[in-house]
Amino acid sequence: MHGIGNDFVMLNCFPERHCDLDWPSLSREMCDRRFGIGADGLILVEPGETAPFRMRMYNPDGSESEMCGNGIRCYARFALDQGLTACATIPVETGAGLLTLEALADGRVRVDMGLARLTRGEIGMEGDPNSQCISESITVDAFSGSGTAVSMGNPHLVFFVPDVACVDLERIGPTIEHSPLFPKRVNVHFVQVVDRSHLIQRTWERGAGITLACGTGACACLVAAFLNGLADRKAEIALPGGRLEIEYCEEGRVFMTGPAETVFHGEWP
Question: What is the pLDDT of residues 124-149, one digit of tens each?
Answer without folding.
Answer: 999 999 999 999 999 998 899 999 99
